[in-house]
Protein backbone atom coordinates (compact mmCIF):
# COMPACT_ATOMS: atom_id res chain seq x y z
CA UNK A 1 0.00 0.00 0.00
CA UNK A 2 1.26 3.51 -0.80
CA UNK A 3 0.25 6.89 0.55
CA UNK A 4 -0.64 10.36 -0.69
CA UNK A 5 0.51 13.33 1.37
CA UNK A 6 -1.57 16.47 1.84
CA UNK A 7 -1.61 19.31 4.36
CA UNK A 8 -4.22 21.11 6.45
CA UNK A 9 -3.90 24.28 8.51
CA UNK A 10 -5.37 25.36 11.82
CA UNK A 11 -5.23 28.63 13.72
CA UNK A 12 -3.95 29.08 17.29
CA UNK A 13 -4.45 32.52 18.82
CA UNK A 14 -2.55 33.74 21.88
CA UNK A 15 -4.49 36.85 22.89
CA UNK A 16 -2.18 37.61 25.82
CA UNK A 17 0.86 37.77 23.54
CA UNK A 18 -1.00 39.21 20.56
CA UNK A 19 0.29 36.43 18.33
CA UNK A 20 -1.53 34.12 15.96
CA UNK A 21 0.06 30.84 14.90
CA UNK A 22 -0.99 28.99 11.77
CA UNK A 23 -0.01 25.37 12.03
CA UNK A 24 0.44 23.24 8.94
CA UNK A 25 -0.14 19.56 9.54
CA UNK A 26 1.10 16.97 7.04
CA UNK A 27 -1.16 13.96 6.54
CA UNK A 28 -0.85 10.76 4.57
CA UNK A 29 -3.68 8.56 3.35
CA UNK A 30 -3.66 5.24 1.47
CA UNK A 31 -4.11 5.49 -2.27
CA UNK A 32 -4.58 2.99 -5.06
CA UNK A 33 -2.30 2.82 -8.09
CA UNK A 34 -4.39 5.17 -10.22
CA UNK A 35 -4.57 7.77 -7.46
CA UNK A 36 -0.83 7.55 -6.93
CA UNK A 37 -0.22 8.34 -10.57
CA UNK A 38 -2.60 11.31 -10.40
CA UNK A 39 -0.72 12.85 -7.47
CA UNK A 40 2.44 13.17 -9.52
CA UNK A 41 3.15 16.48 -11.13
CA UNK A 42 2.16 16.70 -14.77
CA UNK A 43 5.86 17.24 -15.40
CA UNK A 44 6.49 13.62 -14.52
CA UNK A 45 3.78 12.28 -16.80
CA UNK A 46 6.36 11.20 -19.33
CA UNK A 47 7.88 8.84 -16.77
CA UNK A 48 4.66 7.18 -15.59
CA UNK A 49 5.12 4.26 -17.96
CA UNK A 50 8.55 3.36 -16.61
CA UNK A 51 8.70 -0.27 -15.59
CA UNK A 52 10.47 -1.14 -12.35
CA UNK A 53 13.75 -2.21 -13.97
CA UNK A 54 14.05 0.83 -16.26
CA UNK A 55 13.15 3.25 -13.47
CA UNK A 56 15.75 1.80 -11.12
CA UNK A 57 18.47 1.78 -13.80
CA UNK A 58 17.86 5.42 -14.68
CA UNK A 59 17.92 6.51 -11.04
CA UNK A 60 21.22 4.68 -10.49
CA UNK A 61 22.66 6.26 -13.64
CA UNK A 62 21.83 9.66 -12.15
CA UNK A 63 23.70 8.81 -8.96
CA UNK A 64 20.75 7.84 -6.76
CA UNK A 65 21.18 4.48 -4.95
CA UNK A 66 17.66 3.20 -5.63
CA UNK A 67 16.48 0.03 -3.96
CA UNK A 68 13.89 -2.39 -5.37
CA UNK A 69 11.00 -0.61 -7.10
CA UNK A 70 7.65 -1.90 -5.83
CA UNK A 71 4.06 -0.67 -5.97
CA UNK A 72 4.70 1.00 -2.63
CA UNK A 73 7.89 2.82 -3.63
CA UNK A 74 7.30 3.54 -7.32
CA UNK A 75 5.65 6.93 -6.79
CA UNK A 76 8.47 8.06 -4.52
CA UNK A 77 11.08 6.97 -7.07
CA UNK A 78 9.24 8.68 -9.94
CA UNK A 79 9.28 11.93 -7.99
CA UNK A 80 12.97 11.45 -7.25
CA UNK A 81 13.67 10.87 -10.95
CA UNK A 82 11.86 14.09 -11.82
CA UNK A 83 13.86 16.02 -9.21
CA UNK A 84 17.16 14.63 -10.50
CA UNK A 85 16.31 15.42 -14.11
CA UNK A 86 15.26 18.93 -13.13
CA UNK A 87 18.53 19.36 -11.27
CA UNK A 88 20.55 18.36 -14.32
CA UNK A 89 19.60 21.60 -16.06
CA UNK A 90 20.81 23.62 -13.07
CA UNK A 91 24.10 21.77 -12.84
CA UNK A 92 24.81 21.67 -16.56
CA UNK A 93 27.46 24.38 -16.19
CA UNK A 94 29.39 22.18 -13.75
CA UNK A 95 29.16 18.89 -15.63
CA UNK A 96 32.65 19.45 -17.03
CA UNK A 97 34.20 19.11 -13.55
CA UNK A 98 36.63 16.22 -13.41
CA UNK A 99 36.48 13.95 -10.36
CA UNK A 100 39.47 15.43 -8.51
CA UNK A 101 38.45 19.06 -9.05
CA UNK A 102 34.88 18.33 -7.99
CA UNK A 103 35.98 16.59 -4.80
CA UNK A 104 38.52 19.32 -3.97
CA UNK A 105 35.93 22.06 -4.36
CA UNK A 106 33.39 20.21 -2.22
CA UNK A 107 35.95 19.74 0.55
CA UNK A 108 36.90 23.43 0.36
CA UNK A 109 33.23 24.23 0.99
CA UNK A 110 33.17 22.06 4.10
CA UNK A 111 31.60 18.92 2.64
CA UNK A 112 33.52 15.70 3.45
CA UNK A 113 33.29 14.27 -0.06
CA UNK A 114 34.46 10.74 -0.69
CA UNK A 115 35.85 9.46 -4.00
CA UNK A 116 33.91 10.77 -7.02
CA UNK A 117 32.94 7.98 -9.41
CA UNK A 118 30.65 7.77 -12.42
CA UNK A 119 27.95 6.51 -10.05
CA UNK A 120 28.32 9.27 -7.46
CA UNK A 121 29.24 12.22 -9.67
CA UNK A 122 25.68 13.40 -10.16
CA UNK A 123 25.06 13.39 -6.39
CA UNK A 124 28.30 15.31 -5.78
CA UNK A 125 27.38 17.86 -8.45
CA UNK A 126 24.01 18.36 -6.78
CA UNK A 127 25.72 18.94 -3.44
CA UNK A 128 28.13 21.43 -5.04
CA UNK A 129 25.23 23.33 -6.59
CA UNK A 130 23.46 23.51 -3.21
CA UNK A 131 26.57 24.64 -1.33
CA UNK A 132 27.43 27.36 -3.84
CA UNK A 133 24.04 28.94 -3.22
CA UNK A 134 24.82 29.26 0.50
CA UNK A 135 26.91 31.86 2.31
CA UNK A 136 29.92 30.68 4.33
CA UNK A 137 27.88 30.95 7.54
CA UNK A 138 25.03 28.96 6.04
CA UNK A 139 27.44 26.30 4.81
CA UNK A 140 28.84 25.92 8.32
CA UNK A 141 25.34 25.57 9.74
CA UNK A 142 24.50 23.00 7.06
CA UNK A 143 27.66 21.07 7.89
CA UNK A 144 26.67 20.95 11.55
CA UNK A 145 23.19 19.76 10.66
CA UNK A 146 24.51 17.00 8.42
CA UNK A 147 27.23 15.83 10.78
CA UNK A 148 26.46 12.65 12.66
CA UNK A 149 25.63 13.01 16.32
CA UNK A 150 27.10 10.81 19.04
CA UNK A 151 24.77 10.11 21.94
CA UNK A 152 25.12 8.54 25.37
CA UNK A 153 26.36 4.92 25.37
CA UNK A 154 22.89 3.70 26.34
CA UNK A 155 21.23 5.48 23.43
CA UNK A 156 24.01 4.59 21.00
CA UNK A 157 23.53 0.92 21.91
CA UNK A 158 19.95 1.03 20.60
CA UNK A 159 21.20 2.23 17.22
CA UNK A 160 23.48 -0.79 16.97
CA UNK A 161 20.85 -3.32 18.04
CA UNK A 162 17.60 -3.05 16.10
CA UNK A 163 15.96 -5.70 18.30
CA UNK A 164 16.34 -3.71 21.52
CA UNK A 165 12.61 -2.95 21.58
CA UNK A 166 11.69 -6.64 21.89
CA UNK A 167 12.31 -6.47 25.64
CA UNK A 168 11.62 -3.11 27.24
CA UNK A 169 10.91 -4.37 30.75
CA UNK A 170 14.02 -2.79 32.31
CA UNK A 171 13.12 0.57 30.77
CA UNK A 172 9.49 0.35 31.84
CA UNK A 173 10.48 -0.35 35.44
CA UNK A 174 12.36 2.95 35.55
CA UNK A 175 9.42 4.93 34.23
CA UNK A 176 7.04 3.09 36.55
CA UNK A 177 9.19 4.06 39.53
CA UNK A 178 9.10 7.68 38.41
CA UNK A 179 5.35 7.73 37.90
CA UNK A 180 4.62 5.94 41.18
CA UNK A 181 6.51 8.45 43.28
CA UNK A 182 4.96 11.52 41.72
CA UNK A 183 1.40 10.22 41.47
CA UNK A 184 0.97 8.59 44.88
CA UNK A 185 -0.64 10.91 47.47
CA UNK A 186 1.36 9.27 50.26
CA UNK A 187 4.64 10.43 48.74
CA UNK A 188 3.47 13.87 47.61
CA UNK A 189 4.94 16.95 49.25
CA UNK A 190 5.46 20.55 48.26
CA UNK A 191 7.66 20.05 45.24
CA UNK A 192 9.14 22.78 43.07
CA UNK A 193 6.35 24.78 41.37
CA UNK A 194 3.66 22.89 43.27
CA UNK A 195 1.72 19.67 42.72
CA UNK A 196 -0.73 20.70 40.03
CA UNK A 197 -0.76 18.20 37.17
CA UNK A 198 -0.65 20.85 34.47
CA UNK A 199 2.85 20.37 33.07
CA UNK A 200 4.17 18.48 30.07
CA UNK A 201 7.38 18.01 28.12
CA UNK A 202 8.03 18.82 24.48
CA UNK A 203 10.59 18.50 21.72
CA UNK A 204 11.52 20.88 18.92
CA UNK A 205 12.30 18.99 15.71
CA UNK A 206 14.07 20.06 12.53
CA UNK A 207 11.90 19.22 9.47
CA UNK A 208 15.02 19.22 7.28
CA UNK A 209 15.88 16.04 9.13
CA UNK A 210 12.44 14.48 9.53
CA UNK A 211 11.30 15.17 5.94
CA UNK A 212 7.77 14.16 6.95
CA UNK A 213 9.01 11.02 8.70
CA UNK A 214 5.53 9.79 9.72
CA UNK A 215 4.64 9.45 6.04
CA UNK A 216 7.93 7.76 5.10
CA UNK A 217 8.36 5.47 8.10
CA UNK A 218 6.50 2.49 6.64
CA UNK A 219 8.98 2.27 3.77
CA UNK A 220 12.07 2.60 5.99
CA UNK A 221 14.06 0.27 8.19
CA UNK A 222 13.13 0.71 11.87
CA UNK A 223 16.74 1.63 12.73
CA UNK A 224 16.73 4.41 10.12
CA UNK A 225 13.42 5.74 11.44
CA UNK A 226 14.81 5.81 14.98
CA UNK A 227 18.07 7.46 13.93
CA UNK A 228 16.28 10.04 11.79
CA UNK A 229 13.98 11.00 14.63
CA UNK A 230 16.84 11.38 17.11
CA UNK A 231 18.92 13.46 14.71
CA UNK A 232 16.01 15.88 14.20
CA UNK A 233 15.73 16.87 17.89
CA UNK A 234 17.38 20.21 18.62
CA UNK A 235 15.68 21.18 21.89
CA UNK A 236 14.05 19.42 24.85
CA UNK A 237 11.72 21.38 27.10
CA UNK A 238 9.27 21.36 29.99
CA UNK A 239 6.33 23.68 30.13
CA UNK A 240 2.73 24.64 30.76
CA UNK A 241 0.12 26.15 28.46
CA UNK A 242 1.87 27.90 25.52
CA UNK A 243 5.44 27.58 26.80
CA UNK A 244 6.81 25.86 23.64
CA UNK A 245 5.61 28.75 21.50
CA UNK A 246 7.57 31.27 23.59
CA UNK A 247 10.69 30.07 21.76
CA UNK A 248 9.05 31.01 18.48
CA UNK A 249 8.03 34.40 19.87
CA UNK A 250 11.64 35.03 20.92
CA UNK A 251 12.84 34.03 17.47
CA UNK A 252 10.35 36.40 15.83
CA UNK A 253 11.53 39.28 18.02
CA UNK A 254 15.14 38.49 17.14
CA UNK A 255 14.31 38.24 13.44
CA UNK A 256 12.53 41.60 13.47
CA UNK A 257 15.67 43.19 14.90
CA UNK A 258 17.48 42.23 11.72
CA UNK A 259 18.60 38.80 12.87
CA UNK A 260 21.85 39.99 14.51
CA UNK A 261 24.50 37.40 15.52
CA UNK A 262 23.49 35.38 18.57
CA UNK A 263 24.99 32.61 20.67
CA UNK A 264 21.54 31.14 21.30
CA UNK A 265 21.63 27.99 19.18
CA UNK A 266 17.91 27.42 19.64
CA UNK A 267 17.04 30.81 18.13
CA UNK A 268 19.56 30.27 15.33
CA UNK A 269 18.07 26.87 14.51
CA UNK A 270 14.50 28.18 14.44
CA UNK A 271 15.35 31.10 12.16
CA UNK A 272 17.49 28.90 9.91
CA UNK A 273 14.55 26.52 9.49
CA UNK A 274 12.25 29.42 8.63
CA UNK A 275 14.73 30.79 6.11
CA UNK A 276 14.67 27.39 4.43
CA UNK A 277 10.92 27.94 3.85
CA UNK A 278 10.00 25.28 6.41
CA UNK A 279 8.41 25.28 9.84
CA UNK A 280 9.54 24.15 13.28
CA UNK A 281 7.95 20.91 14.45
CA UNK A 282 6.71 21.26 18.05
CA UNK A 283 5.99 17.85 19.57
CA UNK A 284 4.06 17.82 22.87
CA UNK A 285 4.58 14.70 24.98
CA UNK A 286 3.83 13.34 28.47
CA UNK A 287 0.92 15.57 29.47
CA UNK A 288 -0.83 16.18 32.81
CA UNK A 289 2.10 15.66 35.15
CA UNK A 290 3.42 17.71 38.06
CA UNK A 291 6.33 20.09 37.35
CA UNK A 292 9.09 18.03 39.00
CA UNK A 293 8.11 14.94 37.01
CA UNK A 294 8.23 17.02 33.83
CA UNK A 295 11.65 18.39 34.83
CA UNK A 296 12.89 14.86 35.48
CA UNK A 297 11.64 13.58 32.13
CA UNK A 298 13.22 16.56 30.40
CA UNK A 299 16.54 15.94 32.18
CA UNK A 300 16.53 12.23 31.31
CA UNK A 301 16.04 12.92 27.60
CA UNK A 302 18.80 15.54 27.59
CA UNK A 303 21.09 13.10 29.42
CA UNK A 304 20.46 10.43 26.79
CA UNK A 305 20.91 12.80 23.84
CA UNK A 306 23.89 14.63 25.41
CA UNK A 307 24.07 18.38 25.82
CA UNK A 308 26.26 18.94 22.76
CA UNK A 309 23.52 17.56 20.52
CA UNK A 310 20.75 19.92 21.64
CA UNK A 311 20.39 23.68 22.02
CA UNK A 312 19.48 23.57 25.72
CA UNK A 313 21.49 26.03 27.80
CA UNK A 314 21.79 23.77 30.86
CA UNK A 315 21.53 20.16 31.86
CA UNK A 316 18.20 19.15 33.34
CA UNK A 317 17.23 18.63 36.98
CA UNK A 318 16.28 15.24 38.42
CA UNK A 319 13.91 14.96 41.37
CA UNK A 320 12.85 12.26 43.81
CA UNK A 321 14.45 8.84 43.64
CA UNK A 322 15.62 9.52 40.08
CA UNK A 323 18.04 12.11 41.43
CA UNK A 324 19.91 9.27 43.15
CA UNK A 325 20.07 6.99 40.14
CA UNK A 326 23.32 6.24 38.36
CA UNK A 327 23.98 7.94 35.06
CA UNK A 328 23.24 4.70 33.21
CA UNK A 329 19.74 4.45 34.67
CA UNK A 330 19.05 8.10 33.87
CA UNK A 331 20.12 7.55 30.27
CA UNK A 332 18.04 4.39 30.00
CA UNK A 333 14.98 6.31 31.14
CA UNK A 334 15.75 9.09 28.67
CA UNK A 335 16.18 6.57 25.86
CA UNK A 336 12.82 4.97 26.60
CA UNK A 337 11.06 8.35 26.80
CA UNK A 338 12.53 9.34 23.44
CA UNK A 339 11.33 6.07 21.95
CA UNK A 340 7.82 6.74 23.24
CA UNK A 341 8.04 10.29 21.88
CA UNK A 342 8.95 8.95 18.45
CA UNK A 343 5.90 6.70 18.43
CA UNK A 344 3.70 9.66 19.38
CA UNK A 345 5.21 11.62 16.49
CA UNK A 346 4.63 8.79 14.03
CA UNK A 347 1.01 8.48 15.14
CA UNK A 348 0.16 12.19 15.21
CA UNK A 349 1.96 13.20 12.03
CA UNK A 350 4.22 16.15 11.29
CA UNK A 351 3.05 19.67 12.12
CA UNK A 352 5.13 22.70 11.17
CA UNK A 353 5.05 26.33 12.33
CA UNK A 354 6.80 28.61 9.87
CA UNK A 355 7.64 32.31 9.90
CA UNK A 356 5.08 33.11 7.23
CA UNK A 357 2.44 31.41 9.39
CA UNK A 358 2.98 33.71 12.37
CA UNK A 359 1.36 37.09 12.89
CA UNK A 360 2.48 39.44 15.64
CA UNK A 361 0.07 41.99 17.02
UniProtKB/TrEMBL annotation:
Gene3D superfamilies for this protein: 1.10.720.40
Residues of the signal peptide: none
Any single GO CC term annotated in Swiss-Prot or TrEMBL for this entry: nucleoplasm
MF annotations from Gene Ontology: DNA endonuclease activity
Coiled coil: none
GO biological process terms on file: double-strand break repair via homologous recombination; resolution of meiotic recombination intermediates
Domain LEM: 44-88, 91-135
Protein name listed in UniProt: Ankyrin repeat and LEM domain-containing protein 1
UniProt lineage: Eukaryota, Metazoa, Ecdysozoa, Arthropoda, Hexapoda
Gene name tied to this protein: LOC114324550
Amino acid sequence: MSFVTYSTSCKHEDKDEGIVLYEKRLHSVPSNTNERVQTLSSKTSSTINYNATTLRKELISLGFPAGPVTDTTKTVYLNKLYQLKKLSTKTSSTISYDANTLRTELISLGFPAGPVTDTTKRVHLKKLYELKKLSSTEREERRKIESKKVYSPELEATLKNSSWTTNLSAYKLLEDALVKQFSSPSTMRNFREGNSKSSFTYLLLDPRKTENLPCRADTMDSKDVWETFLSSIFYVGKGKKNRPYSHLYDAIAHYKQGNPPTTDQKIKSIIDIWENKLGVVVLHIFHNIIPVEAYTREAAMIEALRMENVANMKIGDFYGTASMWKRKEKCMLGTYLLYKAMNIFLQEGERQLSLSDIECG
